[in-house]
């Protein structure tokens, strides 16, 4: 069994060196976070895409049952879409919208995911941990959380990002490899996607930061968890491995796709959201990945009606079937069993 070393996670009350990673868009539920806490695993509420009121409600639901949880937010790092590129991509999507009877928005919608209101909420009523992805918040924001008694964790995808996060004083970094399912938290979405495993990224980052490193990306077996711990990680963050658990809010069509032999691989694509993210390869990702411009959250909002209509039709083809490289190991089992299995317990 993989043991938890004394440090940040044990101070937070965790007993296993495994973390239930945040998964916005439905999969992370209060039930999933609470279930992870029952086996001594820190779980993250996914604050992204939610209104501040819905986030407050979910925190309330979790806090009534455990104090072993964190909240994840999308840190503003705008990737505005080019208006012409948006129009061209909208035109390219139209046949898909027609297929599902979906109405695509005419104009790009840019927003910051209610950043200020979510900060106010979390500073007024502090939670044990916050984590940020997509960008590094200002140092004064990090300090404000720490003064409020909240530990601050930053997702990083390279040694340079890790060094900047450490210099800003975060309490831990999540070293996320592009093997991860869903969005890759890079701060520079226009750059190339490196071929690097979580264990390799941890080995690059650990020697240059003074804080604990949590590993993420493609970790779906106890063997891969042991490997990142041996590379120097304090813990392994898992997302995809929990997508088929009954406590997760994963769409039925997404669940079926994860269990189906019809999918052969995952790809990194900006076609759904305008930011690189890993998903099962489908006819949609083949057709639309080359056409997709960068632009977050404009492309997320553009494809939302299409994805909703595809989900309602029970057709996974145009769904964002987020999946990390370890997706074949995602099993239909209670989250507590999955997390214990991953920790080798
Ligand atoms: C469906 C899904 C949604 C995700 N949403 C978020 C999110 O809201 N915030 C975030 O920081 N990471 C998000 N991620 C990334 C995970 O937190 C984690 O880094 C990743 O799942 C780890 O790789 P794995 O999927 O191979 O286990 C998401 C991943 C998935 C699969």
SSE topology string: HEHEHEHHEHEHEEHEHEHEEHHH
Q: Please write the CATH class name of the largest domain.
A: Alpha Beta
SS summary, helix count: 13
Number of strands: 11
Quaternary: single chain
CATH topology of the largest domain: TIM Barrel
Bound molecules: flavin mononucleotide
Tell me the β content.
Answer: 5-15%
Rg: 19 Å
Structural class: alpha/beta
CATH A-level architecture of the largest domain:
Alpha-Beta Barrel
* Rounded average pLDDT: 97
User: Shape from CA axes?
Assistant: globular
How do the strands line up in the largest sheet?
A: 1-2-3-4-5-6-8-9
Instruction: Identify the CATH homologous superfamily of the largest domain.
Output: Aldolase class I
Can you summarize the main beta sheet? 8 strands, parallel, barrel
What is the terminal-to-terminal distance? Answer: 5 Å
pLDDT below 50 for ≥5 consecutive residues: which ranges? none
Number of domains: 2
Helical percent range?
Answer: 25-40%
What does this structure look like?
- The protein is of the alpha/beta class and 345 residues long.
- The protein has two domains: 8-76 and 113-250 and 329-342, TIM Barrel (Alpha-Beta Barrel); 81-111 and 264-320, no CATH class.
- Helix content is 36%, strand content 14%.
- The protein has 13 helices and eleven strands.
- The chain has an eight-stranded parallel beta barrel with strand order 1-2-3-4-5-6-8-9, surrounded by six helices.
- The site of flavin mononucleotide has 30 residues, from strand 7 and strand 9.
């Amino acid at each position: 069994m993989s043991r938890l070393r004394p440090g940040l996670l044990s101070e937070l009350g965790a007993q296993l060196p495994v973390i239930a990673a945040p998964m916005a868009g439905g999969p992370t539920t209060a039930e999933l976070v609470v279930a992870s806490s029952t086996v001594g695993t820190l779980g993250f509420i996914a604050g992204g895409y939610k209104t501040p009121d819905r986030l407050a409600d979910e925190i309330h639901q979790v806090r009534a049952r455990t104090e072993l949880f964190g909240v994840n937010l999308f840190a503003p790092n705008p990737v505005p879409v080019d208006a012409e590129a948006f129009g061209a991509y909208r035109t390219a999507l139209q046949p898909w919208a027609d297929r599902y009877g979906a109405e695509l928005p005419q104009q790009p919608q840019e927003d910051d995911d209610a950043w200020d209101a979510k900060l106010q909420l979390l500073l007024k009523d502090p939670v044990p941990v916050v984590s940020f992805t997509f960008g590094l918040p200002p140092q004064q924001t990090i300090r404000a959380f720490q003064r409020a008694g909240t530990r601050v964790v930053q997702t990083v995808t390279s040694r340079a990002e890790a060094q900047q996060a450490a210099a800003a004083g975060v309490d831990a970094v999540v070293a996320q490899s592009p093997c991860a399912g869903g969005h890759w938290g890079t701060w520079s979405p226009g750059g190339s996607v490196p071929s690097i495993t979580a264990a390799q990224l941890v080995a690059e980052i650990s020697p240059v930061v003074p804080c604990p490193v949590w590993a993420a990306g493609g970790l779906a077996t106890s063997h891969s968890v042991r490997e990142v711990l041996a590379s120097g990680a304090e813990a392994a963050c898992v997302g995809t491995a929990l997508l088929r658990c009954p406590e997760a809010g994963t769409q039925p069509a997404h669940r079926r796709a994860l269990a189906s032999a019809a999918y052969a691989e995952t790809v990194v694509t900006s076609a759904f959201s305008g930011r690189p993210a890993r998903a099962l390869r489908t006819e949609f990702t083949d057709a639309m990945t080359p056409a997709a411009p960068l632009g977050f959250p404009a492309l997320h909002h553009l494809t939302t009606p299409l994805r909703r209509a595809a989900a309602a039709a029970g057709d996974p083809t145009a769904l964002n079937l987020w999946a990390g490289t370890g997706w074949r190991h995602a099993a239909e089992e209670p989250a507590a069993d999955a997390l214990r299995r991953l920790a080798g317990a």
